[in-house]
Amino acid sequence: MQQQFSWYVLFSGLFGAVFGGIIAATIGFWKFHRDEFSARCDELCKTLVEAGGVSAEYWSQTFEDNQQYRARILEAKLLGMQSLIDGLSAQVSEKFWAKDNVIFSNLLSEMSDGLTGGQFSEAGRQEDLVRIRKASQVAGELTAAIRVGHRHTMPFQGFMKV
């Protein structure tokens, strides 16, 4: 009888260890993906604010023939930032709720228009006062929308209201 009891103890301990390992691995896997999503949100917000600043610099200047090299540098920066924003926003938006995704998509299209809309890359264009403000303002609104959407993806987010 004594030997049969030791097998029960051994199997119950082994079962507890395996079950604990599975739970720990599941939580670790979830936390890894959660941290990666948070990093993508942070990177997108940083890029949006940077792009708003570069856009304000680009649209505030009148580029004439002797300044075309400066315009081309800023245009290349804006196009690169817009490509990064598009790629990161595709990753981020797939995890947002439908309501947050609609707001995010609308603001993202406004941001694209503020960055490279209008007379973008046209020679001899004049400064555009509307776009000087637009990209920076929309970048702030988008950053806030991303933070709200990020918070809504957290489990039990309703209990964490401050």
> Could you give a short account of the major beta sheet?
none
Kindly report the average pLDDT value: 88
Principal-axis shape: elongated
**CATH architecture, please?**
Up-down Bundle
Supply the number of helical segments: 4
- What is the radius of gyration computed over CA atoms, rounded to a whole number of angstroms? 25 Å
Structural class: mainly alpha
Q: Report, as a whole number of angstroms, the end-to-end distance.
A: 58 Å
How much helical structure, as a percent, in the residues? over 70%
The CATH class label is: Mainly Alpha
**CATH fold annotation:** Four Helix Bundle (Hemerythrin (Met), subunit A)
What portion of residues belong to β-strands?
under 5%
Compressed to H and E, one letter per element, the order equals HHHH
Let me know the number of strands.
Answer: 0
**Which ranges are low-confidence, i.e. pLDDT below 50, for 5 or more consecutive residues?**
none
Estimate nothing, just give the exact number of structural domains. 1
